[in-house]
Amino acid sequence: MESESKTLNGLFDTFTPNIIYKWNFEKHEYEEIINTWGISLIHELGEMTICANCKEPLLFDNGYTSNQWHSKVGFGYSVCEKCFEAEKMMEKSFKEGE
Ligand SMILES: [Zn+2]
Question: Can you say whether the dihedral through the CA atoms of 78, 83, 85, 89 is positive or negative?
Fold first, then answer.
């Protein structure tokens, strides 16, 4: 049973890690950000969370999967519509600038 709970704790660390990664569209590299907000990959529908980018309260159902805020294994965190649109604009402008 003990090993089972250790596995669950491992999963929790994966979903709510101490470090989250923010993609820098300009430099094409990840910045390591300390996850002081307890941003998590998993939520239930109907649950309140926060936008990974602006940290405003966000109903998980209304969140978008971020193209910029990722976990170590590459899953995207939830962001609000405003930040999601801003990410797309940023991505597009740096792509066009290449
Ligand atoms: Zn936001």
Answer: negative
